[in-house]
Every structure is written in structure tokens, then in C-alpha cells.
Queue: 3 jobs
Job 1
Amino acid sequence: MQFKDVIGHGPVKQRLIHSARENRVSHAQLFLGPEGSGNLAMAIAYAQYLVCENPGDADSCGSCAACIKMKKLVHPDVTFTYPVAPKEKFSKPKSVDFVTEWRKAVIENPYMNFNDWVESLEIENKQGSIAVEESADILRRLSLKSVESGYKIVILWFPEKLHISAANKMLKIIEEPPDQTVFILVAENHEKIISTITSRTQLIKINRISDEEMSSWLVHKHELLPDAAKKIVHRADGNYREALLLLNHDPEEEDDAKLFLSWMRSCLKFNMPGIAEFSETMSKTGREKQKLFLQTALHIARECIVMNYADHSMIRMDGKELEDFRRFAPFVNKNNADEFVEELNKAHFHLERNANSKILFADLSFTMNRLLHIK
């Protein structure tokens, strides 16, 4: 992966390239950014630049032997660590045990999130983690000399999942690594990383993708018309993973915004047949479509709050959609907005952890009935 394959973040790319060309590469860096921002993609592009045989002023060459290997994620001097879980013959699993699955998942979507990865592992309801066995394996990898590049690079994805025993075992080598060893930690939540790890890293902040950069990417890479790209950009809110889900959403299916309004009417009137029908309908859709619906609901809640209390230039709706939701907006007000958003986020969280969707949406409907009557 080259820098040109990473959406936006021009200043970050320039900073990383400049540090490499000036031979001022920090031995431990934390690429911190929200889901869908491209922090993993950026880390891989940076690693490729460091091992590239003919790096240019703006990117790796993309054609040397090192770049070709990086494209397949098989460069011997760039290794990956990521959360895993016991499965079949791997009672004490390490990242290397799932390297085939990892390469496939990342090549297909370097903007994937943690739950995408866990789902691809097919580990049922287990939550992946990075255990002490992985730390021992990292130490073993770094004890070997580099094979082709001057650098030995370890990309550690989701340090939030590091066991404290694993983190403690890695502290010394992160603080005093062998010469030309680079740790790149790729994370979403700074607060969930053990402080003794973060204190030893240089922070590289990856922000959400700007609307302009996302729109341009969708138009040129996915051949969308500008209006269609604009609609996706508004919903995705800087999250390219979310944009991909919206891009692949079947346009012939019932529009989620219309479904949301119908659901809200049933909740407001406490229409039990309507609530039951809604919950049944949602339970028959796939989990990703259920999550997309909740993302739509969160987007609508945000728009209602903006309509009620903020500068209207910030509204991301137009046309009939804007007209429909102007009438609904008063039901999301200063006295219930925080809880309204919180409940939608909680539902999304529980869906990602395999909650029974029929029960979840029924329960959420009852909560919405109460919130919608708060004036």
C-alpha cells in the first residue's frame, strides 16, 4: 500500500516522509485515529516507504521487490501483531497462527474495524486479545537480523487489547529497541491503552477524513455522481468503512430514513402491532444492515439537534428529506437528546456483540416511547 492509496491526510503523509528522508524515524509511534480514518492504511503505507528500495519525495516507488512484497503483506522485515483468540488447535494463539486470515482481511479492506476482524476469524462470541505469548513472539522476531531492509518493523494493531502482562513484557524493548527497529501502534482509543505503553510512543494523530477528500475519492475511485457521493459523505461522517457499507447498500431496499420515521410514529403512539412488526422486520435483516439502520438513526438525531439549536449551514440534509425531518426535529430536544443518542449507541454496541436483534429493537422501541414524550 502506498500513500496515494490512503484517503486524504496530506500533512501527515508529508510529515512521515520528511522524517524518513531526514533519518529521524522515531522507534515507537502511535497512529491514533477513529474508526474508518485510515490509521492502519497509513501505518502500512509508512512501513512500505521505510523499506522501499527507491523511495521518492512523495511516495514509495511501488515497483521494487520490497514494494511488491508489501502489497501482499509478505515482506520479511515487516511483521504484524493483532488480537486473536483460542480456536481449534490454537489453545494459546499468536498472530502468526492467523497470518493468512489477516493478510486476506487487510488487503480486502485496510479500513476494517475490530469487529470486522473478529468476525473474519469465526471465533463465535469470543473477544480477541493480545496475550503474553504474543509478546514473547515479538521479542523472538526482533532478535533476528533484518533480511532485506535496514529496518525491522512491527505494526501492532489495536494495542487497546494488550493484556497487562503482555504490555509489561514489551516495555523495555519499546523503550530501548535494537538499532533501526520501529514499532507502529495503530489505535482508536487512547484511554484504553496502558499508559506505560503510550508514554513511550510518539503520537501521530489521524483525524476523520474531511468531507472534501471523501467526496473526491468516491467520485474518482468509485465513479459516483457528485450528488450521490455527497449523500454518502454526509452519512459516513469521515468514516470510510461506513462509506463502503453505504456504497454497497442495496438502493432497492426500503429507505432507512423512511423506516426510521415510521418506527418513530409507532413508538410515539405506543403502537404495539407497529413496534412488533418493526422488530420482526429488523430481526430478519443481516447484522450489518441493522447496524447501518442505527447509524442512519444517529445521523438523523444529529441533524435534528442541529436544526433545533445550531447554525443551519451545518445541516447535512436537503430536499424532501430535510422537509420530512424538520417536522420530527422538535421531538429530539435539549431535555432528551443526550439520552436519545446514548440509547442508539448502546443498541449499536450490543448488536456488535451478537445481541438478539428482535429483543433489542423491541426494548429500544419502549425506551424511545418514553424519550419522545419528554418536552
Note: The chain has a mean pLDDT of 90.
Job 2
Amino acid sequence: MKQLSQPSDLYDKERKVCLAIGMFDGVHLGHQQVLQQAVQAASQNNSVSVAITFDQHPSHIISPEQAPALIQTQAQRIRTIELLGIDAILIIKFDEAFSLKTGKSFIQEIAQGFGSIHSICVGKDFMFGHNRDGNFQSLQKLGQKLGFISYGLQPVILDDQVISSTRIRTALSKGKIDDANQMLGRKFSIEGQVVKGDGKGREIGFATANLDTKGLILPPNGVYAAYAQLNGHKFKALLNIGVRPTIKQSPSSLQVETHLLNFNDNIYDEVIEIEFISRLRNELMFNSTEALKKQISSDIEHAKTLF
């Protein structure tokens, strides 16, 4: 999948483009059908499928105090979209200047940039432009003027409710990971760069990689069995989300740390993706470091039965 910095970067100028537009946070089942419609339209019309998304959630600019924690990093989102067969992706910098564009001017600029659009695929409730002045009906009218087809896909329903990024975040915050998995169409995962910790895990015999997960939605504090993806390799792992109440002088801020089984290399600054398998227990306060070590050993044995 080719990554574009602007529409004119598209390598194939001879064919029309079939666009799918959205934030696509989580790339859940509803997003997937929008993206797949663009892929299908491109295949049937000798066109190029292109996903258009944004470098950050619009709320970070429009209403920062209401900006949600994200389900995926940008890198995860790009990889997930690529797996659906999209030919190219355009990531638009969503800044204050962009937020002031009307829906009409946004679509007109996109059409001018790509030159020739076959179709634009969105969710039926898609809103765009300054003050959300654009919707599917206005997109259809623009399509009639500019010569493209508009596809407005109905939301995907699960258990009589619409699948949405907001609903997935709510499920995850309540620890309902299986529910989130159903809406995502895959197992939920987080991704973060390994940052330096205080080395306490290594001191007690269980070296951990501390992950920077700032801005991401996390399940409740606790210990989880997980798979860790690192440099193309998959490791069995134990994940702890919490404040480590047993470790003396530990910071009170939330930490996300993973112990990769049968692995002891230095991986500072590497990026790890953690796929959640099962929640093992709550984070607990132990009377001694020895009691904590014994529990971690027990957690590892429990986790091994789940992989």
C-alpha cells in the first residue's frame, strides 16, 4: 500500500480513484465495510482504491477536552487498512486551518488533487467540514456536480446496537475485551515504544518492557496473558497494567509493562504490539517482594495454559 503525502503523489494517473473517507479509529467491522466497498468498486472499474484519514482525531483540535483515547496508534491503523486490500492511503494533517474548511471545499480540493474520482465511500452518518456542515446528502449533491458516485453504507449492528469506536472504547474501559473483539473482527491489541523504567522487574527476576501508551484506550488495571509482536517475531507474554503497589518507591502513575517469556534482550526504543488473550487477575498489594515473585510465577504458569 502506497502512503501519500498529497493526492498528486498517486503513482497511477491514468485510472480513476475510489475513495474511502473516515477517521477509522479501530478499523472496526463498520469501517471495514466502507473500506471494502472502495476496494470492490476499484476492482470492478479498473480504478485505484485510496483510504483518506487523519493524523489525529478531529476532537483534539475542535474540542480537546472531549478528545477520546484512541483504539489504535496511527501505525496500527495503517497496517489494518492495508490488510483489507486498499492500494494507497492519504493521511491528512488535521490542524486548526484544516478544521475551518467547509465540507464542500474539502471535497472539491480532494477531487481537484486526484484529478478523476470514480466514487467516494463513507458511512451513512458521516459528517465532515467546519461545524460538520457536510453529510451524505451534501456529498451526493457534490458527486452529481463533480461526476463521482457516492456510497453511504449503513452501520453494522451487533446485539441490536450500532458498532462504533465509542462503543468499543466503552467495552474496553469496562474490561469487556471479548465484546470489543467481536466489534473489531479481530483480537484487541495495543502498541507502544519501549521506554526506560526503574529496573525493579529485573531486580526481582522478571524483566519487563515498559511501554509508552499515551493517548490509547486501555482495559482496567490487572494482569493479562498476551502475545507480544517484536521485530516480526511473536512471543508469549505477561502484561501488567497498573501502579505496582507492592514495589517500594514505585511511581504512582499508571504503567504498562510486559514480561516476554524466555526473552531477556535489551529492547529500549523498540516498538511492541501487545495482543490481549485473557485477563488473569486484578492488580494486588502483596506483603513482600517474595510473595509478589511467587504470584508472578503462578501467573506465568496460568498464562501458559491459555496460549
Note: The chain has two domains: 2-162, 189-304.
Job 3
Amino acid sequence: MASKADKRRSGTPKIEWPTVILIIACYVAWALTGFFLWPHYPIIALALLVLTVALQSSLVHEVLHGHPTRNARVNEAFVFLPIGVVWPFRRFKTIHLCHHADERLTDPLDDPESYYQALWQHEELPAAMKLLLRVNNTMVGRFFLGPWLSVVGFFIDDAKLIAKGDPAIRKAWLMHAAGLAVVIPVVTYGFGMPLWLYLLGPVWFGQSIIAIRTFAEHQWSENPEGRTIIVERTPLSLLFLNNNLHFVHHKSPTVAWYKLPKLFRERRDEWVRMNNGYVFPNYFALLKNFAFRAKEPVVHPVLRRTPEAGRAFRPRMRGGASTYGAGTMPVPAEPPKE
């Protein structure tokens, strides 16, 4: 009998060449920009490096969903070089696949990518941290602060788990370190770029561009299907690998990025009806409405209003520094099966 994985892969090519070509093009563009453009046109080079880091982040997301081949190890090898520096692939894969349980979306404890906080945890935060989280819930705040809040909390939490002896998390970070052992010398000696500039330029703002997409991907709704956004048009669609059609991705997580627009167009009215009309025409509409105004409250409006015992500390990919109480449900060290 065919497995569920086999059934959902039926009719798909063994190698998705558009994704393979885009991965190769991303790394080649990164290298050519650093080696040849940076010495002569540094501002242009920095801008292009920001775009390649953002694209590579989107490609990592595509890979963790089982693309571009049917072999997980081969897929991981495609994005082994972490030019975005901050996220270990296996940790990102583990946490993101847990996020894809749609019935738990936005839950401050059960969704590791939720930007909401539990009421009682939020009340324990210092006033300065509460202010940062409120600013982080505006689109401009998310663009500038979001990467820092997510990264700092995630680093601290994983360090604690490694100190407690978690072997899978330690292995994920060791593999990440092996990739950084290639990327950092290439940047500093090959490109001749100061590491601090690479971190404050391409790394920070590459993640900031991704934050444009993630800013409003999910909202609370009593109906789980109303929790995920559709942004119909954007010039950033290639950079986001069409994840602006995020509801379509959540409903069809194994569909390749280049098939999502056709899938959306063929059933547009049905998709919009299914997600209760949580639709924006473009990201400019989001910016116009929420540039300096929070789209959502920091505290979840319904869930986790009272303390709950027996939940272990766990890291988060979003929602600010989890060391300040943003998350509490354990995330497995090994990723769920694709």
C-alpha cells in the first residue's frame, strides 16, 4: 500500500528543475556580487546581497517542505551554505513544520511562529519589552526590529537546550557551524567585506524583507481557515516564492512554489471564500494601514488568558524574545515527517 507521502507526491517530478535552477542562481549571484561587484560598486553590491539573502531564506522554506527532490538529505545539501547566517536549517525545519498544524495557528503556546503572547506571560514582562513588542506589531517596527527580537530569543533558548544536553539540537548547530565555516571566510577574505557590515547589511535587511511577508500571514479567527492571509499581487512574488498566497500554501504545503499562482487563479473565489476574505490586494495596502499602527494586539485576544502548569519552555521563530515569556510548549528536536 502506498504511504501518504507517496500519494501526495504522485504526479510530481522526481526533480523540480525550476527550484534547482533558482537555488544555483541564488548562490552564483551571491558569489559574483561579493567577488566582483563589491570592490567597485559597494552600495549596489550591498543591495543585491540583501536580495540574495532574502531569496535564500525563501528557498530554505521551500526545501524544508520537501523540495526540489524526494530525498531529504539531497534537499538539505542544496541549502547547506547559510548565507543568511542566523537560522540552522534543521531547527528551522522542525519549528516550521510544527507551525503547519492549522488548528493551532496563532496559539501563543502551541504555534511556534505565533506573534501573540499569553496574557499572564505578557504581564510579567518589563515595561521596555512590552513597548518593543507593541512597536514590533506595526509594519515598520516589524521590518526593523523583527529580525533582532526573533533571533536573540531563539539563540538564547537553543543555548539553554544545548546546555541541558539535547543531542539533536547540538547536532543541528554543529552542522550550521560547518556551513558558517565556509560562508564567513568567503565574506571576510574572499569578498573583503567586514563581517559586521555583512551582518548589519545583507543579513539584517534580508530578514527584514522576509518580515514584509510574515508581518500579516496569520491572525486570530474562530475559524482556523480564516487565520491565514492571501496577498494577491506583489513585485516581490519571486523573492517570496509566491508565499504571498500564504493560505494556498498552507492548504497545499507540498505544492512547488511555481505552481501556486496557477492553483490560486483557477480557484480564486473558492480560496477567498475559504479563508473568510482575509485578503489584501498588495503589501502597499498593508503598509498604508499598518505602517505605524499595530495590526494585531500583542496579547492573544482569546486563547491562553490564564496560567497553565506543566508546559516546558520552548523556542520560537517569531513573536519576540521567548526568554521574556513568549513561548512555553516543547518543540521536538527532530522535525516531523514531511
Note: Confidence is low (pLDDT under 50) at residues 1-10, 320-332.
